[in-house]
Design brief:
The protein is 54% helix and 11% strand. With 196 residues, it is of the alpha+beta class.
Length: 196
């Protein structure tokens, strides 16, 4: 009897892991919990690459990144290969200046905004645009490792803050976000700040 329960448990676990890691189309976006009215920041009109970046060699690479369909972590899938989206992001940040990367926080593509935010956070660069993106409700397809899905840009940015919580800017922004209260991102920030 005990063996049968154990076998069922193992088979259930294997099936759940296979379903979670199997390549599949992202499920349709679920409705996000809206932030409290007091925390809603009016989003600016986002701009095209041409309006944000003057240098043609950077523009071309940003447009390639904007043409990708999702925000993906560096390593994806079963084998942990480097995602094409992350490679496109690496090409952009290899040639773009810090000022250009900050400007890309206002790009029309949510993928570009999310990657630009990750860069700005990792480099500990100050920008008021991060506060705007923490209220950005635009949905973007995501893939972290073997898990695909979709989430608002605000959550992608909050996750980037959490990943860089040892940096002064990220720690400060997470503390501000946790105090913003009671919404999903505030809970996420609180958990991030308290984990080892």
């Amino acid at each position: 009897m005990m063996f049968r329960r154990f076998a069922v448990l193992v088979l259930t676990f294997v099936a759940a892991c296979a379903a979670g890691c199997a390549p599949r189309e992202a499920s349709p976006p679920q409705a996000a919990t809206p932030p409290p009215v007091a925390s809603i920041v009016p989003l600016p009109a986002f701009a095209t690459t041409e309006a944000l970046v003057a240098r043609p060699e950077v523009r071309e690479l940003v447009d390639e990144l904007a043409a990708t369909s999702r925000f993906a972590s560096e390593h994806v899938s079963y084998d942990g290969h480097t995602s094409e989206e992350f490679k496109a992001f690496q090409r952009v940040r290899a040639v773009a200046t810090e000022v250009e990367m900050i400007a890309l926080l206002g790009h029309t593509s949510p993928v570009v905004r999310a990657y630009a935010a990750e860069h700005v956070i990792e480099r500990d660069l100050e920008s008021a645009a991060l506060d705007v993106l923490l209220s950005d409700p635009t949905w973007v397809k995501t893939q972290y490792g073997c898990l695909g899905g979709a989430m608002p840009v605000s959550r992608v940015v909050a996750q980037s803050l959490c990943n860089a919580r040892d940096k002064p800017l990220a720690a400060r922004k997470l503390a501000e976000l946790a105090r913003r209260g009671p919404d999903e991102l505030a809970v996420m920030a609180s958990r991030c700040l308290t984990r080892p």
